[in-house]
Amino acid sequence: MLNIMKKAGCVGLGFGIESGNQQILDDIKKGIKLETVQKAFNLCKKAGIESFAFFIFGLPGETKETILETIKFMKKLPLDDFFLSYFTIFPGSPISRIAEKYGKVRAGYKYKDKININFIPNGLTEQELRKYYKKAFREFYLRPRQIMKYAWKMREVKNIKSLFKSGIAFLNLLRS
Fold first, then answer.
1. 49-87 confidence digits (pLDDT tens)
2. Residue 5 lies in a domain
3. Does 170 lie in the same domain as 102?
4. How far, in Å, CA of 133 to CA of 84, rounded?
5. 101 lies in some domain
6. Quick one: which H or E segment has residue 57?
7. 51 and 20 inside one domain
8. Are 25 and 107 found together in one domain?
9. Could you tell me which residues come within 8 angstroms of residue 139 by beta carbon, excluding any fewer than 6 positions away?
10. 97-119 pLDDT per residue, tens
């Protein structure tokens, strides 16, 4: 199927993985296994299709250890890129009725955007979530493999502007 998609013009696929910890995935009823995720990314790479993953930090039950497992899993996958957000509780969602059992819920409209933190799992602090968020970006993008990949992309003039903007955003994230 991936080979057919590639021939049809597919250049990339994104996967909502959320966590690199199987227990967290089971608890949120994600319905996926980490081994299957690994196979899917390997198959994308083999077919020549870029792959992207979406992860969330601060899910109910999250700990420092599970965040570190997610970072380790993220680096293990043959990803081309990843997107990371904080777990966000939206009013009226099923989790909103039981969230306080798993951590601290912040009130206020500005905290319902997946960029700001509106839920802090028991055992973690907002500062720790932010620290691990930066750590994930640093450890993923500052690997020789990733640096070489982006350097290789810069050989095409059309990529230089977007890569430059992305580099500035990355440096600003690390500075903040």
1. 999 999 999 999 999 999 999 999 999 999 999 999 999
2. no
3. no
4. 8
5. yes
6. strand 50-57
7. yes
8. yes
9. 71, 75
10. 888 899 998 876 455 666 788 89
Total structural domains within the chain:
2
For residue 21 the two structure tokens come to: 């910890």
Are residues 152 and 88 part of one domain?
no
Q: In this structure, are 17 and 97 located in the same domain? A: yes
Helices (H), 77-156: 126-141, 144-153
Nearest to 89 by CA among 80, 101, 77: 101
With H, G, I as helix, E, B as strand and everything else as coil, classify residue 146. Answer: helix
pTM exceeds 0.70 for this model: yes
Residue 171, token pair as written in the block: 């440096």
In this prediction, residue 146 carries a pLDDT of 83
How would you class 112 by CB atoms within 10 Å of its CB: exposed for 0-12, middle for 13-18, buried for 19 or more? Answer: middle
Structure tokens at 86: 């904080």
Identify whether 2 is part of a domain: no
Structure tokens of 170? 């990355």
